[in-house]
């Protein structure tokens, strides 16, 4: 699907959707429809390592309720023990639900630590474009193995996409290959909606195609009037300021299995903390 087709779809009125039923008609304390807005801590990658506790405290003040971490130099828990990190999150009124990590190294330990504090997911954040389609089947096999380790520890495994898996390669979508060759009992998927749109695909159609496989999403906006091409410079902007029609897309997501809505900021128009503060303000009042 080309960009023009996608924009026509995403700009159409959602007349056929019962918006009030998508999230049970409930609104969050912030006045919007998302109950527990999350943030991927990579959004604050330049600030977080300098003062993890101070930055997390600010994040909580912006109205975020869920945290998705990633592996920095001091691990997923930023120099704290897993149990101490959980306690600090609880004290701030937040929950760590997931983390991006390398599932090919020391994964048994990571899964055990995540399971001990009740995390829901460990997530592979990146594969890169593979040389051939069989390599995506091998990746799916590795996901199944990681999923079994996660299951043993009371959590689940997921894969986070970039644009390459939603671009045709030898006539097939790598995303299809990974989803068809991974076990739904063991592996879920985190849809980075920015990258799906950047590849010229429609997030809602993919969620419809694989109902209840996409359990988490990255909500990341795209600058208006920017070119869509493979290998382009990142064109993300403050959520709510760009071209992606999140009111329409997110209204469809819940009924198709989405459970966790996680803001991610990759490119900055101002200070990172200001970007994620504005994004939270937009999403916490968004009603759909």
Would you kindly provide a written description of the structure presented here, covering whatever features stand out?
- This protein has one domain (about 5-10, about 35-285): TIM Barrel, CATH 3.20.20.150.
- Helix 6 packs across helix 7.
- It has helices at about 5-10, 20, 50-60, 80-90, 105-115, 135-150, 175-180, 195-200, 205-210, 245-255, 270-285; strands spanning about 40, 65-70, 95-100, 120-125, 155-160, 185-190, 215-220, 220, 235, 260-265.
- It is globular and about 50 Å long.
- The two termini are about 25 Å apart.
- It is α/β, with parallel strands linked by helices and about 290 residues long.
- The strands form two sheets. The chain has an eight-stranded parallel β-barrel, surrounded by four helices. A two-stranded antiparallel sheet has the order 8-9.
- The protein is built from eleven helices and ten strands.
Give keywords:
two-stranded antiparallel ribbon; isomerase; 288 residues; single chain; 11 helices; eight-stranded parallel beta barrel; disordered N terminus; isomerase activity
Summarize the topology:
Elements: H1 3-11, H2 19-22, E1 38-40, H3 52-61, E2 66-69, H4 82-92, E3 95-100, H5 107-116, E4 121-124, H6 133-152, E5 156-160, H7 174-180, E6 187-192, H8 193-198, H9 203-209, E7 214-219, E8 221-222, E9 236-237, H10 246-253, E10 260-263, H11 272-285
Parallel strand pairs: 1-2, 1-10, 2-3, 3-4, 4-5, 5-6, 6-7, 7-10
Antiparallel strand pairs: 8-9
Helix pairs in contact: 6-7
Pfam family, one: AP_endonuc_2
Protein name: Sugar phosphate isomerase/epimerase
InterPro entries: IolE/XylAMocC-like, Xyl_isomerase-like_sf, Xyl_isomerase-like_TIM-brl
